[in-house]
Amino acid sequence: MNIRKIKHEYKKGFSLEVENLEIPSNKIIGLVGENGAGKTTLMSILSGFMKANKVYEVETEKKDFTIGFIPSEIKIYDFLTVEEFVKLFVDFSSTEMSVDEIISLLEMEEKRKTSIDELSQGMQKKLTLIPIMTKKYDLIILDEPFNSIDVKYIYKLKQLLQNIKQRATILISSHILDTLVDLCDDFIVLDAGRVKDTFENTKTITDMEERIFEGSN
């Protein structure tokens, strides 16, 4: 994906303006920056969830380029049980996986008859990630996917994403920098709605922090 130019303006004066940014295929790209830098706006526009109100010039490798987007805050049907929710997904999506297979993948067999509103926030988060586990996309966009999930599931999610990148590009935003350093191939740093820096992951947290908070080299 090549972002020739995206520009979006808000009424209060903030604007997002990203130009000449290449998002390489089959890599995990960390999108980082302070709160208010424009990360969620950029991800929402790229996914089609939100429309840029000034300029949108983005080139993709093919016409039928598919994008999966999991926002940081997403509401699910909490009045359903886990099994009912998974069945709803299976019935109305193109996945070839069965309800049992998905519940097993989530490691939620013991919770299959439990109402979603009785689950922990972390277990609810797992359910929101079902699409990326069961469907094929060219680009997957994840906004804060590691929030509220336990250490074991973070480990499993990182393994899953490493497998998925063999067939998709992953753009991921998180404030958990240690996890991003373990996972990502490259980074994009946003600051005040602009690309401040892009760099390859050196697998060193101090290098990453310097690039984000002390300026680009």
TrEMBL record:
The keyword Transcription regulation does not apply. PROSITE patterns: ABC_TRANSPORTER_2 (PS50893). Coiled coil: none annotated. GO terms for molecular function: ATP binding; ATP hydrolysis activity. This is ABC-2 type transport system ATP-binding protein. It holds the Pfam family ABC_tran. Residues 1-217 form the ABC transporter domain. Gene3D superfamilies: P-loop containing nucleotide triphosphate hydrolases (3.40.50.300). Keywords: ATP-binding, Nucleotide-binding, Transport. InterPro entries: AAA+_ATPase, ABC_transporter-like_ATP-bd, ABC_Transporter_VariousFunc, P-loop_NTPase.
